[in-house]
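Per your request, structure below.
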């Protein structure tokens, strides 16, 4: 193969069985425009099977996308395993690590990292998504049957998820919710979401865990309970509530930040306004039926060092600690199995 070319390998996971090939790739590589995706499908697919955009994919189908080799941005080269058995793998994903290969990332992905650690034959199919900058719990199925069971659990609302978020401002109430349908695409950013009455229903509940002041700015640590699982749901709902995530270049203080960040020309003043180099969102708790036994299992991941270090020590400044009522999800959470 030409040294200036790489092939990005894909193997279709069980939960995507029956999807059109173009829809599958649009899910995997969300930053691609529709026209560029169609061009890739015409010119860059390498496979032992004849594949068209309309081809219905099946579990285990392998193919590659051939593209020009580009210098990849650095990504974390380690991930913590919280729990593993013959059907289930639970990881604590670090911020900055994309899950799947994309137009920018080939070697520096979670999938590639697991293959390097455990060998090419290691099976671990992510059952849901976490944005590249989001840290925390990620669940993978280790067999086709487990992956299908996990997909049904996520789609059926059987999975309880909790996130921690550091946001701008102090919410007026200790507990509040946002119920606003979301649709893909905004005028400024194609891969962002927008509130739209014609969009898919989306609801998130929030509880204030702590209010504090940092360098004169009012900030808060929240617990977030998404009742649906839409793309960028927590981030978009917090922005709508007037409390965007600290560090959010897409839904934060300036819609132009994301474009300039993508072109590597975000100015120092913008970085200072963002306060953190990544958005402050962490998947902290998760409970679900085990894909083999159906028994409810639960997992936790503490705030990573970058977010924990951003919080002032209680009493170190004008911080105010708040102990809101425990969530229903927390009340039902079983013992941590990690």
């Amino acid at each position: 193969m030409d040294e200036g070319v790489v092939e990005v390998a894909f193997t279709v996971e069980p939960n995507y069985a029956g999807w059109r090939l173009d829809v599958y790739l649009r899910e995997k590589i969300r930053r691609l425009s529709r026209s560029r995706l169609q061009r890739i499908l015409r010119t860059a697919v390498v496979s032992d099977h004849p594949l068209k955009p309309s081809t219905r994919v099946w579990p285990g189908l392998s193919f590659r996308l051939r593209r020009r080799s580009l210098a990849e941005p650095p990504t974390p080269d380690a991930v913590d395993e919280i729990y593993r058995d013959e059907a289930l793998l639970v990881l604590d994903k670090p911020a900055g690590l994309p899950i799947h290969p994309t137009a920018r990332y080939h070697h520096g992905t979670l999938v590639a990292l697991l293959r390097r650690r455990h060998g090419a034959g290691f099976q671990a199919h992510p059952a849901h998504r976490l944005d590249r900058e989001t840290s925390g719990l990620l669940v993978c199925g280790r067999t086709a049957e487990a992956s299908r069971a996990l997909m049904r659990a996520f789609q059926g609302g059987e999975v309880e998820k909790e996130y921690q978020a550091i946001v701008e401002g102090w919410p007026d109430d200790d507990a509040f919710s946002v119920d606003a349908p979301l649709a893909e695409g905004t005028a400024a950013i194609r891969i962002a979401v927008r509130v739209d009455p014609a969009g898919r229903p989306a609801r998130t509940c929030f509880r204030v865990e702590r209010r504090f002041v940092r360098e004169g700015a009012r900030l808060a640590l929240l617990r977030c309970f998404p009742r649906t699982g839409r793309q960028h749901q927590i981030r978009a709902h917090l922005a709508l509530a007037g409390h965007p995530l600290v560090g959010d270049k897409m839904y934060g203080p300036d819609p132009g930040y994301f474009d300039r960040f993508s072109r590597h020309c975000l100015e120092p003043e913008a970085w200072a306004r963002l306060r953190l180099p990544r958005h402050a969102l962490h998947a902290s708790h998760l409970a679900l039926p085990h894909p083999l036994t159906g028994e409810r299992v639960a997992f936790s991941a503490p705030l990573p060092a970058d977010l924990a270090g951003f919080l002032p020590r209680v009493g170190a400044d004008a911080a105010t600690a708040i102990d809101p009522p425990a969530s229903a999800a927390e009340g039902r959470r079983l013992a941590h199995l990690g």
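The longest strand covers residues 203-214.

Regards,
D.
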